[in-house]
Structures are given as C-alpha cells and as structure tokens.
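thought: fold this chain, then report.
action: predict
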Amino acid sequence: MAVLNGPRLSACVVLYQPDEEVLETVRSLAESTCPVDIYIVNNNPGSTEIPAMIKAGWPQAEIITCSRNLGYGEGNNQVINRIHGDYHLICNPDISFAPDLLQRMIRWMDDHPDVGVLSPRVLNPDGTEQFLPRRAPTVRYLLGGSLSKHGDRLLEKADRLAEEGMHHRLCEAWWRSQGLLPEEPRPVEEEEPVQPFDKETHVPGTAIERMQSHARQEPLDESGRAQPVYERMVRSSREAEADPSPEETLEAALAERRERGLVGLLSRRPTLTFLRSERIRRCAYRLKRLRSHYTMEDAPPTGPVEVDFATGCFLLIRTKLFYRLGGFDRHFFLYHEDSDLTLRARGQAKVVYNPEFCVTHAWHRASSHSLKPRLHHIVSSIRFFNKWGWTW
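observation:
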C-alpha cells in the first residue's frame, strides 16, 4: 500500500479542548527529518481557533472536523482510509520530540520486521522518566495505579505520626523485643557514701526518737500529716507498678487490638501511634510497589524488550497491521483503547518498548482531577475486563 516517492509515515493527532500546547506537537512533526503526512482530527466542532492556527502555520496538515466528540479511539479511526505509508504514528497533542526521532524509529523497525508496534521511553518536561504501564492491565494493577497517587500522602501522614513521642518509645520497644536492637543498658545508681560519725550533727535520743525526728523532715501528705518513711516507700512502689515499661505498653495495645478491633484501637492516642503509622506506611509501600511492578519501574528495561502494553500517547505501528486490526475498538470512548489495540496486535506481531527512543509528554492526568474523565476510566475498565476477562 505504500506510495512510491511519498512519505513513508503518517501521523494523527486528536483534539478535543486543545490549547497552544498542541502547536509544539505539530512543530515536532513538521520539523522531523522524516517526511510525515500530518492529520489533525478535531473532535470539538465548536473549537476552531487552534485548528485555524495549525492550518495557518503548517498548511500541509490536513484538518478533519467531526460533527461531535467521537472519543479518542474513534477519532483516530477517521484517518484509517486516508493513510498510505508504511508506518502510522498515533500521537497525543502534548508530545514533543527531537527532529531525527521518527527517522531513527523507522530505521529500527525496518531492521526488525517481526515488530509491529514500537513504544519509546516517555519523559516528563523536567527530564524525569514518566513510568507508564507496560504490563497487561489487571484489576489489581488498576486499583493500585488509581490509589498509588495517595502513597506519598500516606507516607507523609505516617511521618507526622512518627514525630509523636510515644511512637519512638513503642517502636524501640518492639525492635528490642524482636532482637533487632541491643538491650538498653540500665543506669547504675550511685550509692550514697556512708557519712562518718560526727558528734556535732548527731541526734541524741533513742532509735524511736531519731525515727520520729527523721519523719518530721519528710514532706506532708494530702491530709497535712507527716509521711513516714515506710509509707513513702510503699507509695513509690505502687507508682512504679502503675508506670508500665514500653514492652508492657505495646503488649497491652496489641491485646486490646485483638479484643476491641481496629476501630476501638485507633481512638487511643498516643499509645496507638506506632500501630497506626506502621500500618499506614505498609499500605503506602504496597500501593507504590504494585504501581512500580505494573510500569516496570522496579526493573526498568535497559534495551529493547517485548511488552504487554504500549501507551497510546505515542505509538508507532505498521500501517498494514493497523488496517488488519481495523483501528481502535470504537466501543472504548476514552481510556483502554490502547490496551485493547496492543493485546490484539500481540496476536499478529511483537509489541516492543525501546528506551533508546525518547519523547517528552506534558501529562495532565485528567482522570485524577475531574469527575467526568474518571467515570470514563471506570466505564472503559469494566468494558475492557468484560472483553478480555476479569484477571486479578
């Protein structure tokens, strides 16, 4: 289907509520060292300012205006009967890249004819890597991904709780009980030296009189009566028994946790600071670890590797393969259309992620900030699992 002496590459950018950010994307496509047929699909017929700016700046770009919002996948399908090159690029309107990137990607695809889809490394505008999913979506991955943004906030909350004094006391007690810390040495009490007998300071009288004289020097109790030595000793002993050790405090908290449950336990402060902060910390780490595994952040590939998922923000696919797949599934209005396309493509060719190629993505994550995109994400997730099976 390739046209002789024509561009080997076509690119489609779908717009809905565009801003001037898309101009940088079109500039990257137009300034590419590889000739590109540029198609701009406007899913919002009421928005004409940005498409007019694109047409004025790059007359070679073809503007396709839809009568209504068809969604991301169906919007990309509007060019399926117009493209004739060897490769087709699906690109978000917030992507920018180097002029030689597309030529290098096409050259790599030519050298690997068994690869049908190529996905690059995606960077944030500040240069940090943007870890996007690279494994097949599952219910567990999606839940972890949706909640992972709360992980940092949970860790901050745990750190605030850790600043309370009781946390440190109970934490050290638990560490010592597990043998992770050595036993704290007890301070050695210095014995008072025996005073030599002095006639001038000696109190005359019998032993009973000396005890009474000593008692009169003791502090008074609540009733104003002098507190004898033996009563003070008994009281000090009882106070020592009422002040449990850190190990006893932790054991009592754990016992109450078993008896009353977590709800009753969380109402006590600061004894439960240790338990609360550690549980929050473990929950946050589990969410972040789940997201890291989903995006391969825990073991980032250093070379070309076959993956289960290629992000739709920047996806290079062979045009013939795109024809055979029939483009995107139109039932996915927004979100998971790229997941579905990748899984269908894997049945006919390899899907490869190659970190050698890099693009910059000004990711806005609309589903995290507003209700409507979040609802679209939930509906598309249900539709995706109904089609491909509910896998935990």
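thought: worth noting. The chain has two domains: 9-135+297-388, 139-179+228-294.
final: tokens above.
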